[in-house]
Amino acid sequence: xIKLSRGFDIKLLGKPSPEHLNVTQPRLFALKPxxxxxxxxxxxxxxxxxxxxxxxxxLFYDKGDPRIxxxxxxxxxxxxxxxxxxxxxxxIIISADREQEFHTFDRLDPSSCSRDEVVGLLLxxxxxxxxxxxxxxxxxxxxxxxxxxxxxCFDTAPxxxxxxxxxxxxxxxxxxxxxxxxxxxxxxxHLGLGPHSADVFQNADGVKTTSFSGPHPxxxxxxxxxxxxxxxxxxxxWTIKPQDVAIIGKLFRDGxxxxxxxxxxxxxxxxxxxxxxxxxxxxxxxxxxxxxKHENVRCISGNPxxxxxxxxxxxxxxxxxxxxxxxxxxxxxxxxWLVPSYKRxxxxxxxxxxxxxxxxxxxxxxxxxxxxxxxxxNQYERVVPMDLFPQHLIKSIxxxxxxxMEGLGIYEVVEEDLALCEFVCTSKQPVQQILxxxxxxxxxxG
Amino acid sequence: xxxxxxxxxxVKPHFEEGxxxxxxxxxxxxxxxxxxxxxxxxxxxxxxxxxxxxxxxFTVVVAMIPALLFGMWNVGHQxxxxxxEFAAMGEGFMDKILxxxxxxxxxxxxxxxxxxxxxxxxxMIRRHPVNEGFLVSGMLIPLxxxxxxxxWMVALATAFAVIIGKEAFGGTxxxxxxxxxxxxxxxxxxxxxxxxxxxxxxxxxxxxxVDGFSGATPLGVAYLGGAQALADVSFLHYDLTxxxxxxxxxxxxxxxxxxxxxxxxxxLITGIASWRVMASVVVGALTAGFLFSLxxxxxxxxxxxxxxxxxxxxxxxxxxxxxxxxxSAHTATGKLIYGFLIGIFGMVIRALNPAYPxxxxxxxxxxxxxxxxxxxxxxxxxxxxxxxxxx
Lengths: 446, 391
Prior knowledge:
The complex is a heterodimer. By secondary structure, chain A is an alpha/beta fold. Chain A has helices at 115-125, 163-166, 171-184, 199-202, 221-228, 242-254, 285-289, 390-398, 402-407, 419-424, 431-445, and strands at 2-3, 28-31, 44-45, 52-53, 58-61, 69-71, 76-83, 89-96, 132-134, 138-139, 148-152, 189-193, 208-213, 237-239, 260-266, 274-279, 297-301, 308-310, 322-327, 333-334. Chain A contains eleven helices and 20 strands. Chain B is mainly alpha-helical. The longest helix of chain B has 34 residues, at 93-126.
């Protein structure tokens, strides 16, 4: 058991209740190339408007590596290909059939087939896109063999779903997927367990498990990698989320790409919170149309720290298992810096509400201040349970010093690991954005 | 509130791009954001901590208010004691407060007026938002000045500190030396007779003071005569109790350990100031103070180590000066080393320097200069650890 003491649990109203919600399945589903780090903004689209596709048939591939295809999460008709700035493809939208039809692949028994066959099936089916690579959090490289594969089996982010609920009903596929992953790495498949992880995680076969406890970001896979076997220069490890392991397991076991995903609806601005089943890329319009308490909200695919803002008719992200709706903070606050009664979560104890540590806050998206030069010090370190100096790392990125970035551990972190720094920053610095710029700089030019 | 909102809405267009007052935009913006935390939506993380720089700086100002209030009373108290009136603490409260306010408030107003004026002008010329850092500096400067300081000198010192000490480096967050201490060190070296000696610590017309009155601070007394001298002047009430309460001559805000202690509590509970710095300065000072209390080394033979904590500006410097997050070491380990060395050097200057018995200002400025070096070694050790892991 690794006990982490640094970090910060942001307690918010709107935690997902354990019930399963009865929701109308949306008609539209979409893949968003921008969800994938490291692929070009204009991938090669393989389908035409109006053409039919089965679940598991490829929609597009990245021009950098034509082997990596991204497949349709559902069967249906390609109804729209949306483009954004500079003709970048933002969404490829499928209008789903009522009854899902799956493209069938040859089933593979991971215990008897070769690594090349495993890679081949993952690439052919489009499931490859579910694997991410560290450093840089990019798509996994089919030509590299990862040192290890890491899977975090709990999430400590604010309003995060309970992974025990997410994996319910997929236990067998999950275990099958772990066996597949074991073929891909020369090292081990590591599971990071939380204090309440279910048996399916605790008793998984063929993997190494490590238990973690502590405040957020203890559930971040990057933090777990740092404590189990840190990423050194030249190391490559892969990461994947438990539900996606189950998708891979099902692919090998049943020969179909079944992108079913249990998703948590969270946040203070919906009538209900809870879990529901849908598929990757689901539109949130039918879900939110009868759930919103009012219109002045921000909808997020993911959690409030690292998620992506989406419209009220936007789509669930490729890697996300959570929809969050919180109040929009677009109103000025009179003497907001002075008044003691504004109820906001804070790492500092400058709000009297620190006397009630278990209070859940009704937050909004206000910036609560303006951007300033760095003034406070040792603030980021308090929320990053890793042996590194986040503030120095961020500064080294700002002055583009490669050697310093490497020395200060840029290979070990991605945006989500430093998201709390951005949250607590007194000077309101865009930490995640700066880190991404640094990661891209090192990846492309380092 | 609605009134302010309407007013701002009405005048704002004049300050925005294309308006006739567009050059003054950032001056206007500072006032606007002072009234209203803007409704800017958060980018990146969708939620943000409630704290911002305004609140941080305001908390520090609040923490200094006990020292300011006590200082105002004590300026009056010292004045009347020197004149032979109201010698007991409880007597003449209103007279003392009144005299103290008339002496101290102009200094505060001048420091804030000059400093904020310069900040606004710089912000508008260089087109960036006004930074809140001076809210704290503007209060620190009066508190570390003797009550007899001429107002023009406060203005000059503040201007020097803000322009040379801060704006020249790029503004709040970029300065290397503590801004308030630059103001003090400026007066100290430019006009030494106004900043040291026995005559500057009690406000009022010296010709009205009782015969034989000495305005010497307890530190000055101990410095000249060691522990025995402190005991000899006990008629001045320079005992431990008065040192802790703060009813002794000195800079405006530095005398009361209790008032500064309240400030320290506020800073530590809110988590604004680093406990590491405060604790390690005290440890450093006690260590050195103990060595110097041994015979034959320093002027302070026989003065117990703990007495150093309550004399002079030790407490004020520890709580409000050494903890400045910008000019102190930035790493946790660095802060411990930085604080400890301040404690040591402060005592070395206090006890071994024949010219001047107080050392915190110079010790902190010295360590401000070396803080980046300390951090460098702490960070390098982290880098080395990481690189050696790769082999």
